[in-house]
Write a structure and sequence with these properties.
By secondary structure, this protein is of the alpha+beta class. It has five domains: 128 residues, PAS domain (Beta-Lactamase), CATH 3.30.450; 120 residues, Beta-Lactamase (2-Layer Sandwich), CATH 3.30.450.20; 63 residues, Signal transduction histidine kinase, dimerisation/phosphotransfer (DHp) domain (Helix Hairpins), CATH 1.10.287.130; 170 residues, Histidine kinase-like ATPase, C-terminal domain (Heat Shock Protein 90, 2-Layer Sandwich), CATH 3.30.565; 121 residues, Rossmann fold. Helix content is 36%, strand content 25%. It has 18 helices and 24 strands. Strands 4-3-7-6-5 form a five-stranded antiparallel sheet. It has a five-stranded antiparallel sheet with strand order 9-8-12-11-10, with helices on both faces. A five-stranded mixed sheet has the order 14-16-17-19-18. Helix 8 runs antiparallel to helix 9 and helix 8 packs parallel to helix 15. The longest helix has 47 residues. The chain is elongated, with a radius of gyration of 44 Å.
Length: 648
C-alpha cells in the first residue's frame, strides 16, 4: 500500500515503498536501519563510511562488531520486543569509535530516531564522520570551557589520582588552603586532613566498585599557616571510555563561617538552657538563704556578746553571704539581673573593696593596689564592678596556693581599634600561670582547672559578661609558671561629679552582729506577709514580730484574700513575693488596691527586675532576696514613711 501525495494539478498519486527505499539509497548522509541490535539496511554512503564494498557486508551484522556499547545511547543498542512505541531517548545523539572491517577506526557522530512500523520497533541511525580537524577544534573548545570553569569557580576544585595524589587545582583551592598550585601538585589529599581518612577509604572503595557515583563529607583541613579550615567535600569518580576508573574530581566549599555560626548557635542554645537552670536554682537558693540570714540575725540578738556560740552563728551567717554571692553569679549567667549603670570612679571602687579583698585572699598573699592618677569615670553598675574585682582577685588567689603577690592596678588607656578613651583595671598575680589550651577556655561557663568542690567555673564567665555589656574588652597575658595578668578596659564616661561609695566591711566589721531595729512604738503597723516558700515566710515573720510589727502571714495570694476577708484590722503594708503559683505579688496588690488604693506595697524578688507595671495607687517598692533583718526593717520603714516616689 502506498502513501498518497498531491500533485500540482490537484490529483493524488500513491508513494510506493520502492520510492522510499530509493530515497534511502540516494541520501548522501550515512543511514542505518536497525532492529534488535542488528543492521537491516545500510545505504551506499554508510557502506562507504564503514569501508565495505557492498551492503551485504553490513546487513545482518550486530552493532557490537563495529561499535563499543555507549551507556548514553540507548536507542542505538536497545530496541524493544514490544510492538508499542518506546519512551523518548534522553540522549538521541552521541559519538562512537567505528571499527572498520579492515582494522581502521574512525570517529562518528550518530543521531538516532526510534519508531514503530506495524508491530516492529526500529531505529534509524544517521552517522557522520568527525574529521580530525573538527576533533581538534572541539578539543580546544572543550579545553577552553574547562579552563574557564576551573579558573573562575568559587569552590575549590582538584583532580586527583585514584590513590589521592593531586594532579591539578584551581585558584580557589589555593586561596582556601594557603598553598600555591605548584605546592599542591603532587601532594596527597591525606596530608591536608591527616588522621581523618577512614570514612574516605570506605566511600572510595564503593566508588571503585560502582556502588556509588560520588560522596560528600565535612572535613577539617590544615592550612599552610597552621590554622584550620572547615570544608564540605564532594568527590566524584571519572571513568574512561571503557568504563574503568580513571581519576577523581574533588570540590571543596569553605564552610568555616557557617561552622562558626552553627557553633555560636549551639553555644547560645546551651547558654539559654544553662541560664534557665541557673535562674531556677538561684531562686530556690535565695529562699533558703533568706531564712539562714534572718535566723542568724535573730540568734545573734538572743546570745550574749561573750557567748562562745555567738561566733559560730556569725560564721554561719558569713557562709550564707558567700552563698548569696554565688546565687548572684548564677543570676548573672541567667541574665536575670538588670544592671543600674552610673558614672563611677574605678579608684573608688577598688578602695571601697580593698578591706574585703584582704580578708578573702588570706594572710599568705600580699595585696598591692596602684591607683592611676586623674582617671575619668566609667559608666557601670557598682555591684557588678565589685564583682569583677572580687572574681579576678579570687582567681588570682587560687593560682597561688603557697603564697605570692596580687597587684591591682588602674590607669588611663584607650580601647584597641578605635582609640576611644578608656580606664584600665589590671589584676596581676605571681602564680602558676596558664598554658594555651587553658587560656582558650578561660571564660567558658563552668570551666575550671580546680579540684572538684573547689570552684564553680562561673567567676570569669561572669566577668566577661559584665565587661562585654559595659562595652569593654578583656586582655589576658599568661604563661605556664610565669604568672597571669587579666586586664579589663572599660570605655571612659563623660566627666561627672563622683558619688561617694560605701566601704565594704573589714574583717572586724564583718564579725559584728547586724542589729535588727525595733519599730517606732507610736507607729506600729499591721503587715500582711505573703510568700509561698515556708522557710522564707517563717523567718521574715519572726523578724517582723521581733521588730514590733503585727503580722498576718499567708502562703498564697488566695489565702491572703481569705484572711483579710475575716480580719477587721487595718492592713498598713503588703509584703508579697513577686512570683508565686496561682497569684503573684503584683496581681494580689492590684486586687487589694481596688478596695484601698493607698495601700503600701513591698514586693520581694530573687531578681533585680523592677515590676513591669504598678497597680493603681501608690508606687510599688522592691526588696531583693536574700537580705539581712536590718535591711528588711529599714526598707519597711522607708515604705511606710514614704509620701510619693520610692527608690526600687
Amino acid at each position: 500500500m502506498g502513501v498518497a501525495t498531491q500533485t500540482a494539478a490537484g490529483s493524488f498519486m500513491p508513494v510506493e515503498p520502492e520510492m522510499v527505499l530509493a530515497a534511502f539509497e540516494a541520501t548522501a548522509e550515512s543511514l542505518l536501519l536497525i532492529e534488535h541490535d542488528h543492521i537491516l539496511l545500510a545505504n551506499p554512503a554508510c557502506v562507504k563510511l564503514f569501508g565495505c564494498e557492498e551492503p551485504a557486508a553490513l546487513v545482518g551484522q550486530t552493532l557490537d562488531r563495529f561499535f563499543s556499547p555507549n551507556r548514553f545511547c540507548r536507542d542505538l543498542f536497545q530496541t524493544t520486543q514490544s510492538g508499542s512505541q518506546s519512551s523518548q531517548c534522553e540522549h538521541p545523539s552521541g559519538e562512537f569509535d567505528l571499527r572498520r572491517p579492515d582494522g581502521g577506526e574512525v570517529r562518528v557522530l550518530t543521531r538516532c530516531t526510534r519508531f514503530v512500523s506495524g508491530n516492529r520497533t526500529l531505529v534509524l541511525a544517521a552517522l557522520r564522520e568527525v574529521r580530525r580537524a573538527d576533533v581538534a577544534r572541539m578539543m580546544r573548545d572543550d579545553e577552553l570551557r574547562f579552563r574557564t570553569i576551573l579558573e573562575g569557580a568559587a569552590v575549590g576544585i582538584a583532580t586527583c589520582t585514584l590513590d589521592g595524589r593531586i594532579i591539578e587545582t584551581n585558584p580557589a583551592l589555593s586561596k582556601m588552603l594557603g598553598y600555591s598550585a605548584q605546592e599542591l601538585t603532587g601532594m596527597n589529599a591525606r596530608e591536608l586532613h591527616p588522621g581523618d581518612f577512614q570514612q574516605d577509604e570506605v566511600f572510595l572503595r564503593q566508588l571503585m566498585q560502582g556502588e556509588r557515583d560520588s560522596f560528600e563529607l565535612e572535613k577539617c583541613y590544615s592550612r599552610k599557616d597552621g590554622s584550620n579550615l572547615w570544608g564540605h567535600l564532594r568527590v566524584s569518580l571519572v571513568r574512561d571510555s571503557s568504563g574503568a576508573p580513571a581519576f577523581l574530581v574533588a570540590m571543596v566549599e569553605d564552610t568555616t563561617a557557617r561552622k562558626r555560626a552553627e557553633e555560636q548557635l549551639r553555644q547560645a542554645e546551651k547558654m539559654e538552657v544553662i541560664g534557665r537552670l541557673a535562674g531556677g536554682i538561684a531562686h530556690d537558693f535565695n529562699n533558703l538563704l533568706t531564712g539562714i540570714l534572718l535566723y542568724c540575725d535573730l540568734l545573734v540578738h538572743e546570745l550574749d556578746p561573750g557567748n562562745r556560740l555567738r561566733q559560730h552563728v556569725v560564721e554561719i551567717r558569713m557562709a550564707g553571704e558567700q552563698g548569696a554571692a554565688l546565687t548572684q553569679q548564677l543570676l548573672a549567667l541567667a541574665r536575670k539581673d538588670v544592671p543600674q549603670p552610673r558614672p563611677i570612679l574605678l579608684n573608688d571602687v577598688v578602695a571601697s573593696t580593698e578591706n574585703l579583698l584582704r580578708r578573702l585572699i588570706g594572710e599568705h598573699i600580699e595585696l598591692v593596689t596602684i591607683p592611676g592618677p586623674n582617671l575619668r569615670p566609667v559608666l557601670a553598675d557598682l555591684t557588678e564592678l565589685r564583682q569583677v574585682i572580687l572574681n579576678l582577685a579570687l582567681n588570682a588567689r587560687d593560682a597561688m596556693p603557697h603564697g605570692g603577690r596580687i597587684t591591682v592596678r588602674t590607669r588611663s588607656k584607650t580601647l584597641p581599634g578605635n582609640a576611644q578613651p578608656a580606664v584600665s583595671l589590671a589584676v596581676e598575680d605571681t602564680g602558676c600561670g596558664m598554658d594555651a589550651p587553658t587560656r582558650a577556655r578561660l571564660f567558658e561557663p563552668f570551666f575550671t582547672t580546680k579540684q572538684p568542690g573547689h570552684g564553680t567555673g562561673l567567676g570569669l564567665a561572669t566577668v566577661q559578661r559584665i565587661v562585654s555589656e559595659a562595652g569593654g574588652v578583656i586582655a589576658v597575658e599568661s604563661e605556664a609558671g610565669r604568672g597571669t595578668q587579666i586586664e579589663v578596659l572599660l570605655p571612659a564616661a563623660p566627666a561627672a561629679p563622683p558619688t561617694a561609695l560605701p566601704t565594704m566591711p573589714s574583717s572586724a566589721e564583718a564579725d559584728a552582729p547586724v542589729a535588727i531595729p525595733h519599730a517606732i512604738p507610736h507607729k506600729e503597723a499591721t503587715i500582711l506577709l505573703v510568700d509561698d516558700d515556708a522557710i522564707a515566710r517563717k523567718s521574715m515573720h519572726r523578724v517582723l514580730r521581733y521588730a514590733g510589727y503585727r503580722v498576718l502571714a499567708a502562703p498564697s495570694g488566695k489565702r491572703a484574700l481569705a484572711i483579710l476577708a475575716g480580719h477587721s484590722a487595718q492592713v498598713d503594708l503588703l509584703i508579697a513575693d513577686g512570683t508565686m503559683p496561682g497569684m503573684g505579688g503584683l496581681e494580689l496588690a492590684e486586687k487589694l488596691r481596688r478596695q484601698r488604693p493607698d495601700l503600701k506595697v513591698l514586693l520581694i524578688s530573687g531578681y533585680q527586675d523592677a515590676p513591669v507595671k504598678n497597680p493603681p495607687g501608690a508606687p510599688v517598692a522592691l526588696i531583693r532576696k536574700p537580705f539581712a533583718g536590718a535591711v528588711l526593717i529599714e526598707r519597711i520603714r522607708e515604705v511606710l514613711n514614704s509620701q510619693g516616689e520610692l527608690q526600687c
